[in-house]
Each structure stands twice: as C-alpha cells, then as structure tokens.
Design brief:
single chain; alpha/beta; Immunoglobulin-like; four-stranded antiparallel beta sheet; globular; Prokaryotic YEATS domain-containing protein
C-alpha cells in the first residue's frame, strides 16, 4: 500500500529513524536486565504507565484522544476480528456446502481484509449487510465497570473502529446523558469536528471511523472498503493525519495492526521527525515469546507510540486492571502478573517436546487426546502438496486430529509441535469446551500443550500413548 498522503524527504526519513541516544553498553545492559519487582514486565513499562497516568490527570492537558478498538467490545460480548471472520466463514458454508474447501483455504491466508472480501463475495451483498446488522446491532450485551471506567478517563474525544454501540451505551449508563456521535462519512459533521475539536465548549464526540452497524454500506471491514476509504478518498486520510499530528492518542483494545491507521501513524511519525513518542497504547504482550524491548522499540521508532503492556491471556483482565488504575491519581502500578516460564531444553533432540510438558495428557480438568488415520498422498493435490512440503516423499502420510477437552467454553490452547512443522506453535481457541487441531504427518512425535489461562501443561507422546494408532505410524 503506498503512502496515503504527501511525501517524505530524505532528511525527515533520517530524523524519523534516528535511534534513541543510548550507547551500545547501555542497550546491552537493558537487554540483559532482569524484570523488576518479580514481574514479567520491565521498569520501562512502569515508567510508560506512570507517564500516561500523569498526562491523563493533568488539568492543563485537554488534547488527548482515546482510540478504542475491538478489545473493548469483545469484553461486552461482541466478536473479535478473528471471530468475526469465523462467523462469516460459517455463513458462507451454511449457504452451500460446496464452499467448504475454498473456505478452508481462505482460512489459511494471512491477508485478513482479503479473506473478509472473499467471504463477502461468496455470501452476497444482502446477506453480508444482514450479518453486520445482526452481529453488531444487538444491545443485549453487558457494560461492566471496566468499560464505564474507560468512559471516565480524561479524553477530549473518543475515536473508534468498532461498529457497535458499546461506547454510546456506556456513556449514557455512566453520565445519564445522550452522547454526541459522528460518522466519518458525514462530511458536514466531520468538517465541524475538525474546526471545533480543541474548543473547550465543544463537548466530547464519539467518532465512528469505520462505520456503524445500522449502515453496513459505510462499514470498513473488507478490502474494497479500505481501498474506497483510504486510497480513493484522500481527504479521509488527510483529516485523520491532521488529528494524529495535533492530539496525543491513547489506543485501548487496539492491536496496532489496522492497515490504514498504522500507515497513517508511520507517515505522521516521519513528517514530525525525531522526538519522543507522543502517543500511547495499552497492549497485550506474550511475555513467553516476545521480547518486550524489541516490541517497544519498534512501536516507538516506527509509529511514535509508547506502549504500556500487560501479560497476554484470553480474558484480557490486565487491560481492565490498567484502565481501572488510570482513573486513580498518579503513583500506582498494578501488581505483577505471573507468567509461565519457558520449558527447559529438550532431552531428546529428535523429539524436542518430549518431557517438557509434565509427561501427562490430563491435568486441572483438561485432557489432550489424538486420533490417527492413514491417508495417501495420491488422494488429492492439496494433500500431496503438504506431503512434499514435509519432505516425506515416498512415505505414507497420516491425518492427526488433536483435541484438548476442558472445563471452559473459552480460552486458548497453545500446541507445541515438532520443529518440522511450520509454524511449530499453534494457538487454538476453545469452542464449546474443545480446542481442535488437524495435522498431517508421516510419523509419531510428542505434543506439548499450554493452557494460557490456567498455566496447565499437557503432554502426549504419539509413539507410546496411543493404543489404536497404526503401528507403522508409531514406529516411523
């Protein structure tokens, strides 16, 4: 995607990419520094939170905009982005079972806006509009204390990419006032907003950047929507860029992955040049896999965002902990949240997950099971392609269905596979108490599973723990 507005000269580029003024020795110390307060997160994270807290409590600072993403609406019972794509996929399959194969292939695509585009095309426009109204139009969703506290934060205005009315209802529930809203497609209202946004007598506006459920034709969800809004309509990008340059933004429940908004943030960062980050984002961090300092430097130097992290889990309670604490006067930080330590090094280099996950397939009410069926690489071109990718030419291929059965209807099961799988780590959500993963393999190996919410570990050796598996599979 090209730059959305203007051009960046070489001087601006060099300034924008100027690293922080730290020596190699100082940076080496930062990378090797243990987490503070027995926490999985660093001292820099506490300092970022303290800075954000002070900014929101500064009575002289009226130039802060909240930017609210799907993470807040998920708390109220609406689907996440990935769940919405699954709903669309199910809708397509329900219309015609012959679409099962193409839907499965689309599910493996990384380009999520194009996936949504294809689902929209297959289900037809009328059904797509009906789905948007049905999924996001229901008001029978809960507005809890966390969302009410978000309304109380000192934001001049609130921008949102969500399609539902959670923020409107939370505002009314909290303040007993009907909120003022703006649709980004309403040229008159947007023009007034651009002129009046800093005016103290101009009350808070809730601005729907990507549309509202009651008018699906204006919703920005699929590839064509992004093209229409940000590539064919230059004024939309220019107005947002002006806001991003004028105000400090605080992203909440936002993954910093929206293709258009991240492009704009990067463009504004380049245009303004060197300087401390002017925006903040409250983000989940997978502390087991992601290096906090590397992620922090990327967001800061690429987008001008200072992140405030909380440890990732499916409940996202860490997000609410931070929102609730932001209401309090400066000086407090939430207690550290424990995270699961990484497993020790493998005892068997040929089966690296062996012995790393507790040696049992049952724990804390969860059970890991597997079914193995013989197949053949001649059965279909797709199977043969997978067969070749696994470099198992000339050997029999087997279908493995892994299941984690648990006492919960939500949450995430993380599967750790043999390193010949790419990727060798897969996150699967529980649906009706079961997380299912299908694989193709030509031999047995050990599988590890981590339940992120409970720190539960499960382990299953396909070569010794499956009584009914084909002998040739277990001995391969």
């Amino acid at each position: 995607m090209p730059f959305l507005f203007g051009f960046v000269d070489q001087t601006q580029l060099e300034l924008a990419w100027t690293p922080r003024t730290t020596t190699y020795e100082e940076e080496a110390i930062m990378y090797s520094m243990p987490p503070t307060r027995n926490s999985a997160l660093s001292k820099a994270n506490e300092e970022a939170f303290a800075d954000l807290q002070r900014m929101l409590h500064d009575p002289q600072n009226n130039n802060v905009l909240g930017v609210v993403g799907a993470g807040v609406s998920v708390r109220a019972g609406y689907p996440s982005w990935s769940e919405l794509l699954s709903i669309m996929a199910d809708q397509v399959v329900s219309l015609d079972m012959r679409f099962v194969e193409v839907v499965n292939k689309l599910g493996m695509m990384q380009d999520v806006t194009w996936r949504a585009e294809e689902y929209r095309r297959l289900m037809t426009e009328d059904r797509y509009y009906e789905l948007i109204r049905k999924v996001f139009g229901s008001d029978a969703k809960s507005i809890d204390q966390c969302i009410e506290n978000l309304i109380d934060l000192n934001f001049r205005h609130v921008l949102t990419t969500n399609y539902d009315t959670v923020l409107e209802r939370a505002h009314f529930q909290r303040r007993k006032q009907i909120p003022e809203t703006i649709q980004w497609t309403n040229a008159f209202d947007v023009r007034e907003f651009m002129y009046q946004a800093t005016n103290g007598s101009y009350g808070r506006r809730y601005v729907y950047l990507h549309g509202r459920y009651n008018d699906p034709s204006c919703v920005v969800l699929t590839d064509r929507d992004y093209v229409q809004r940000y590539l064919l309509q230059n004024d939309a990008a220019a107005k947002l860029a002006a806001l991003f340059s004028t105000f400090s933004l605080v992203f909440i429940g936002f993954s910093i992955s929206d293709p258009a908004l991240t492009q704009l943030l990067q463009q504004v960062k380049f245009s303004l040049g060197v300087g401390a980050p002017r925006h903040y984002a409250i983000l989940a961090l997978n502390t087991a896999d992601d290096d906090e300092l590397l992620v922090r430097n990327r967001l800061s130097n690429k987008y001008g965002i200072e992140p405030v992290f909380y440890p990732l889990d499916s409940s996202h309670e860490g997000l609410c902990d931070l929102i609730n604490l932001l209401k309090e006067p400066p000086g407090e930080f939430p207690p550290p949240m424990p995270t699961m330590p990484r497993p020790s090094g493998p005892a068997d280099p040929d089966d690296p997950q062996k012995g790393q996950w507790g040696g049992t397939n049952e724990a804390d009410g969860y059970q890991l099971t597997a079914e193995v069926d013989g197949t053949s690489h001649e059965e279909s071109p797709e199977t043969f392609a997978k067969y070749l990718r696994m470099r198992g030419m000339g050997r029999r291929l087997y279908h493995i269905k892994l299941k984690v059965i648990g006492p919960t209807n939500d949450g995430i099961a993380r599967f750790y596979l043999h390193p010949t799988f790419v990727p060798d780590r897969r996150d699967v959500s529980f649906r009706r108490g079961i997380a299912t993963l299908d694989l193709l393999a030509y031999g047995a190996f050990t599988i590890g599973v981590e339940i992120l919410e409970t720190n539960t570990r499960l382990e299953l050796d396909l070569s010794s723990d499956l009584v009914d598996a084909p002998r040739a599979f277990k001995e391969s």
